[in-house]
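Thread: zinc ion complex, take 2
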Amino acid sequence: MTCPLCGQDVLRAGVTTFVADASGTVVVVRNVPADVCAECGEAVINEDVAQDLEDLVNDARRSGTESLVRHYQPVAS
Ligand SMILES: [Zn+2]
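Output below.
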């Protein structure tokens, strides 16, 4: 897999910290599984994980949460 940012083929399975800051709600999720570029540090999050994160952000917004920090937990399927 090639890095979308620098184009180097050096993505490695790892974890990243996801941060979303919008509409008065800040969401930080640690230990998010991602492919991390060894060259520039760009983290590529797969679609399923991105969807989980989006749901989390939407839930936080809906409930009026000002800030939320948590570790990533895959949604049981
Ligand atoms: Zn890169």
